[in-house]
Amino acid sequence: MPTALRVGRYRFFFFSNEGREPSHVHVIAAENEAKFWLAPIALAANYGFNTRELNGIKAIVEEHHRELLEAWNEHFRREDP
Fold first, then answer.
1. For the whole model, what pTM was predicted?
2. For position 12, what pLDDT does the model report?
3. What residue segments make up the domains of the chain, in order of their start?
4. Is 79 helix (H, G, I), strand (E, B) or coil?
5. Does residue 69 carry a pLDDT above 50?
6. Is the dihedral of CA 44, 47, 49, 51 positive or negative?
7. DSSP per-residue letters across 11-71
8. Which residue from 36, 24, 17, 7 is spatially nearest to 73, judged by alpha carbons?
């Protein structure tokens, strides 16, 4: 599970066996986890975060979008929109 970014209590990471899916990032904090698509940015799944936290996490994904997408492409060795 390569970590792409840490912001506050949030860890943004990939599962190495998910390279066939469109680019996305998982975020975890304590027992909560969510998954965001990166192109376009959208919530894919949520397990425990409330709406306020999800909005904050989405803002982090938007702020670091280029960095996250570059990390995805580097890890999976491909180009994605």
1. 0.90
2. 98
3. 3-76
4. coil
5. yes
6. positive
7. EEE--TT-TTSPSEEEEEETTEEEEEEETTEEEEEEES--HHHHHHHHHHHHHTHHHHHHH
8. 24
